[in-house]
Specification:
The chain is of the alpha+beta class. It is built from two helices and four strands.
């Protein structure tokens, strides 16, 4: 299910005998920066930090259906770099995508939206963060390591499954 359908401007019927492609899939309709914040509060002193700063990173994925049948997926990345003496930089990015699903079974919609769609958005979000830190004066720019979206999804599902049992205990 990781294969995306052809882009909207491609002619899917041209090589399939006039029929749309068979099987489940999705198409990326649009990608966009929804929110971007970069802070370098101690510049220029933060540009001369000895050693590597500590990195605190947060990752969130959210998806919602729209009235037009498309799905909006947001990838929220927050990165704070700091030393004992100062905050080096803060970056917050919400990178969104609009996706059209085709032939996806109901039980597969949520994993598709919260695992596969963020995988397609991630390289673009990574580049935006790298460019923001580079433009902020940091060399080399901050490059996010790959993210295990499936692992995050599974951990989130396990946390949800445990929540009712935990709240029932006093």
């Amino acid at each position: 299910m990781t294969d995306a359908a052809p882009p909207a401007d491609a002619n899917p019927a041209s090589d399939t005998g006039g029929q749309p492609p068979a099987g489940p899939g999705f198409r990326i309709v649009a990608q966009y920066v929804k929110d971007l914040s970069f802070e370098n509060p101690k510049a220029p002193d933060s540009l001369r930090v000895d050693g590597k700063p500590a990195i605190d990173m947060g990752v969130e994925m959210n998806a919602q259906g729209r009235k037009d049948g498309l799905f909006e997926v947001d990838l929220r990345l927050t990165i704070k770099a700091s030393t004992d003496a100062m905050t080096v930089f803060n970056v917050e990015l919400v990178y969104g995508g609009l996706f059209a699903l085709q032939g996806v079974a109901e039980q597969d919609v949520e994993p598709l939206l919260l695992i596969e769609c963020p995988r397609y958005l991630f390289p673009f979000a990574r580049e935006i963060i790298a460019r923001a830190t580079s433009d902020g004066g940091f060399y080399p720019p901050f490059m996010l390591d790959p993210i295990d979206f499936a692992g995050i999804y599974v951990a989130r599902q396990q946390q949800i499954a445990r929540a009712p049992a935990e709240t029932g205990q006093a």
